[in-house]
Amino acid sequence: xxxxVLKLAPHERVxxxxxxxxxxxxxxxxxxxxxxxxxxxxxxxxxxxxxxxxVRRVCYIAQLVLSGDAKPDEARLxxxxxxxxxxxALTDHDSRAQLAAVTEALLDDQFYQALxxxxxxxxxxxxxxxxxx
Length: 133
Hints:
Blueprint: E1 4-8, E2 13-16, E3 19-22, E4 28-32, E5 39-41, H1 54-67, H2 72-89, H3 93-107, H4 111-119, H5 122-131
Antiparallel strand pairs: 1-4, 2-3, 2-5
């Protein structure tokens, strides 16, 4: 995860390797220099009751790794299966590119990058579910 830059709003919270950190009164930029640090913006966190769609389920598994609630090796297998299942439904070029990015990130143990790529699929999934296609 070297080179990750977090831009935090005032009083925004972020989870870093299991510790919740809250920003102060001003906007802040943090450079995360430690490779493979587990980072999760709490404003982006999906709560268990919100895990009600296929993409959200896969996102949630990645999130569990970042929060320290799931072991990376066990979660990686579930995530890869989830990506495989999503690829059966999300067949457009952009979705496939994002799923390929997720797979690459998972193979490199970059769970934050995998979650980031998965989150881009949430609006597409919402549109598909709204139209019933």
